[in-house]
Amino acid sequence: MTKIYDLHIHTSYSDGELAPNDVLHLAKQKGAQTISVTDHDNVDFYFDKTAQLTAKNLNLKVVAGVELFCMAQGVPVEILAYGFDVNLMKNYLENNAINQKVIEQFRFDIFPKLFQKYGVKLELDYTKINFDNNNPGVSQEIFNCVLKNKEAKNLVLEENANAFDSINKFLRCTINNPKSKFYAFKNSNFSTCKKIINIVHKFGGLAFLAHPYEYIGCTDKILKYAVKLGVDGVECFHFTSLGEKENNYLVEFCNKNNLLISGGSDFHTTNINSNKNKIGEIGINKQMMDKILNKLK
Questions:
Q1: What angle do CA 55, 16, 62 make, to 5 degrees?
Q2: Which of 157, 142, 137, 140 is nearest to 112 (CA)?
Q3: How far apart are CA 256 and CA 266, in angstroms?
């Protein structure tokens, strides 16, 4: 059996369904050799003593990781960081108020205004949103609300017939998409991709562009821009790039530009109907993993 090195996993410390211990046991059960927990703008997993002990008892190697939100030429993207000093990263995230709640608050504030411009009022169920949670549930509620509102739904479908395939795709097609009438990041104050890559390097880590095919209509532009900014690698193995054409393109791009290759399941849930349930099934091989570890020495 080929060992999988899954370097993209989420826990309940951000928007993952499972608690850290459950994630670790499931990863081991699925045969993962080495993993990285990459919660959104959060490294609390690495300060969870119970989780660290569990990983040790399971003989499961965990590489420090985090998925960082940032802006690249007007497009919201994510950088996967590995091998950094967790204390420095935690301090940076807390002092700069960068976390999932801040991003969800932005969505909460902006979405109703965007639809109001077109005469559509979104009736959000505020009982479904809780900013005391690591994952406030804003994106889920907005998705459900738009889906149930015929006028709002049709406005979105006019631009992309597949926008409601998932919550993530809905966000990528609307507020994240510079070509959409619902684009919302033109004057945002979120960190630039350049700043985030520099921070990762400053803290002794490696920076990888996450899931390039998530950036609908902007994949090539973002890849080339990330190289100019000094990114160390690209997440080539992800459920959005498992097609032979997409996967080969990303691997060849990395080889051509002397970049490292990463990959992972982007695990969030055990829901069998989700693309994000394949922990330990999507990732990189030993040779690719060794290159990353050697670069971190």
A1: 25
A2: 142
A3: 25
CA distances from 28 to 56, 181, 270, 273, 286 (A): 11, 44, 15, 22, 16
State the sign of the Cα–Cα–Cα–Cα dihedral 158, 159, 162, 168: negative
Strand order in the sheet with 4-9: 4-9, 32-37, 61-62
18, 11 in Cβ contact below 8 A? Answer: yes
Per-residue pLDDT tens digits for 76-113: 999 999 999 999 999 999 988 777 888 889 999 999 99
pTM score, whole prediction: 0.94
Q: Which amino acid is at 11?
A: T
Say how far apart CA 267 and CA 279 lie, in whole Å: 5
Query: What are the structure tokens assigned to 29, written together?
Result: 């059960």
At 6, give phi and psi (nearest 5°).
Answer: -95, 105
pLDDT digits (tens, 9 = 90+) for 236-291: 999 999 899 999 999 999 999 999 999 999 999 999 888 898 999 999 999 999 99
Question: For the chain, how long is the longest CA-to-CA vector?
Answer: 57
- Count of CB atoms situated within 10 Å of the CB of 69: 20
Tell me which residue has tokens 């060849």.
252
Spatial distance between the Cα atoms of 77 and 135, rounded to a whole number of angstroms: 19
